[in-house]
Amino acid sequence: TQLLEQSPQFLSIQEGENLTVYCNSSSVFSSLQWYRQEPGEGPVLLVTVVTGGEVKKLKRLTFQFGDARKDSSLHITAAQPGDTGLYLCAGFKAAGNKLTFGGGTRVLVKP
Amino acid sequence: DAGITQSPRHKVTETGTPVTLRCHQTENHRYMYWYRQDPGHGLRLIHYSYGVKDTDKGEVSDGYSVSRSKTEDFLLTLESATSSQTSVYFCAISSGSPYEQYFGPGTRLTVT
After folding, report:
1. Chain A residues close to B58, C-beta within 8 Å
2. Shortest Cα distance from A47 to chain B (angstroms)?
3. B49 contacts B32 by C-beta, under 8 angstroms
4. Which residues of A touch B (CB under 8 A)?
């Protein structure tokens, strides 16, 4: 059983459509990170959210941290083929000094 | 891009043989981590280091050992490889913020 559950596991959409990826837990995290990973490469950090209710934007990507700091979402507006990849959320607990990763959401944006 | 390299990038080995994977950083970061990535399991922490000769276990440490004799190098050893250790292994580093980690390119290990 994973501490962080991501949904959906796989998402296939057409270029120009919007999509949302969810990251949920029953645990409270000090912070939450989102990474994107392309085939054959390591994950790349996109954003860190720290405060409950925080919203961060990175061009067409919007990240939100839940008020209770147990969940997060990633919304992509007008998706492009370059957004294709595996999106991973990861929660950090200061007490453990370690990251816990979700299982990932594989996004495919078709031209 | 963070200066992290992993070697080898690909390796095929037989069951029962020892294997050592190397992670090298040029950033002088304090924290280094070893993860494995498997379908359906995401990234799972094997071991991590918070300084030279300071290491600790992660959630899937059985069958693995690590060493860090220099700031820049973190070695992962499989003493006697098993087929269940077939995976993609990633090294990561972080500086003052352990939760913001930067990953290497990965090593694909196949144990036959």
Report:
1. 98
2. 9
3. yes
4. 2, 30-31, 33, 35, 40-45, 48, 88, 90, 92, 97-99, 101-104
Describe the strand order of the beta sheet including B64-70 as a list of residue ranges: B4-7, B19-25, B73-78, B64-70
Q: Residue B100: what pLDDT?
A: 83
- The DSSP code sequence of chain A is --SSEEE-SEEEEETT--EEEEEE-SS--SEEEEEEE-TTS--EEEEEE-STT-EEEETTEEEEE-TTSSEEEEEESS--GGG-EEEEEEEEETTTTEEEE---EEEEEE-
Residue of A33, A40, A41 with shortest CB distance to B99: A33
pLDDT digits (tens, 9 = 90+) for A67-108: 999 999 999 999 999 999 999 999 988 776 788 999 999 999
Strand ranges for chain B from DSSP E: 4-7, 10-13, 19-25, 31-38, 42-51, 54-57, 64-70, 73-78, 87-94, 102-103, 107-111
